[in-house]
């Protein structure tokens, strides 16, 4: 069974969903420490004035926030950030050919008022997965598994709990992962390679690393092909 373990992120980029589609089981790594400068609560979209961050405000406890597990991070509702994100997306993508197609999904999520960040971003990611046409992947959270250990040992504990036979990792993990430990427990290891075709974007220059929403708004039902490599616009080569 192919398994991916990744920390949940807010409206993540195309590569995240490539890992999702390659997995039989995708485990949201939600009980590891929150990284306040990471992608848990923010991502970028394209605008006429360049890239723009969309950031979900969270309750901060100063430096201690880095010691809190992701699934215990609370959203701050001191400002109406969800309305702001929705209006920002509407303003910058209303001319995108498939914006209206995804509008019901956006409206449903930006009406929510979740207490915990993980609940919102995990549910949103699963909904976006289905919107892309990926239906075979199952999801769960690492916090459901009661695992212990650090780094590679902890990853392997998760994989053994779910009876994984093959682990698909992001390439940056090469810096710290210990491949011999996977071999010892009979789990094969694969690293992702991110190499995707270009797709039309509203605002030049082309940027492949923005939120998946950009691809959905621009390609609609063909979006998955720009992840699998089965779609290509020759005018963009």
Give the uncertain stretches in residue-range form: none
Question: Main beta sheet, described?
Answer: 5 strands, parallel
- How many H/I helices? 8
The class by helix and strand makeup works out as alpha/beta
Seen as an oligomer or otherwise, the chain set is: single chain
Percent of residues in helices comes to: 25-40%
Q: Encode the helix/strand succession as letters.
A: EHEEEHHHEHEHEHH
Mean pLDDT: 94
Beta-strand residue percentage: 5-15%
Shape summary? globular
Tally of separate domains: 1
CA-atom Rg in angstroms:
18 Å
Query: What distance separates the N and C termini?
Result: 36 Å
| Strands in their spatial order, largest beta sheet | 5-2-1-6-7
- SS elements, strand count: 7
In short:
The chain has 237 residues and is an alpha/beta fold. The chain has helices at residues 14-22, 81-93, 99-110, 117-132, 151-161, 179-184, 212-219, 225-228; strands at 2-6, 25-28, 42-47, 50-55, 138-141, 166-169, 188-191.
Describe this structure in words.
- This protein has helices spanning 14-22, 81-93, 99-110, 117-132, 151-161, 179-184, 212-219, 225-228, and strands at residues 2-6, 25-28, 42-47, 50-55, 138-141, 166-169, 188-191.
- With 237 residues, the protein is of the alpha/beta class.
- The protein has one domain (2-236).
- The protein has a 5-stranded parallel beta sheet, with helices on both faces.
- Helix 6 links the parallel strand 6 (166-169) and strand 7.
- Helix 2 packs antiparallel against helix 3 (99-110).
- It is globular, with a radius of gyration of 18 Å.
- The two termini are 36 Å apart.
């Amino acid at each position: 069974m192919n398994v991916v373990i990744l920390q949940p992120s807010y409206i993540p980029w195309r590569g995240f969903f490539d890992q999702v589609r390659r997995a039989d089981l995708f485990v949201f790594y939600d009980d590891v420490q929150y990284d306040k400068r990471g992608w848990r609560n923010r991502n970028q979209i394209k605008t006429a004035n360049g890239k723009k961050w969309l950031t979900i405000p969270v309750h901060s406890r100063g430096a201690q926030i880095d010691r809190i597990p992701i699934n215990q991070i609370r959203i701050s509702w001191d400002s109406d950030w969800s309305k702001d994100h929705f209006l920002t997306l509407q303003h910058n993508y209303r001319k995108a050919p498939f914006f209206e197609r995804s509008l019901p999904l956006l409206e449903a999520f930006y009406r929510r008022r979740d207490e915990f960040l993980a609940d919102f971003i995990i549910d949103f990611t699963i909904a976006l997965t289905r919107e892309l046409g990926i239906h075979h992947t199952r999801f769960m959270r690492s916090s459901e598994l009661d695992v212990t250990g650090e780094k590679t040992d902890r990853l392997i504990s998760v994989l053994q709990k779910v009876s994984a036979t093959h682990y698909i990792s992001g390439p940056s993990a090469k810096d710290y992962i210990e491949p011999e430990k996977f071999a010892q427990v009979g789990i094969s290891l694969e690293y992702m390679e991110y190499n995707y075709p270009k797709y039309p974007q509203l605002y030049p220059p082309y940027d492949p690393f923005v939120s998946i929403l950009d691809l959905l708004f621009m390609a609609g039902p063909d979006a998955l092909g720009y992840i699998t490599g089965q779609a290509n616009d020759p005018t963009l080569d």
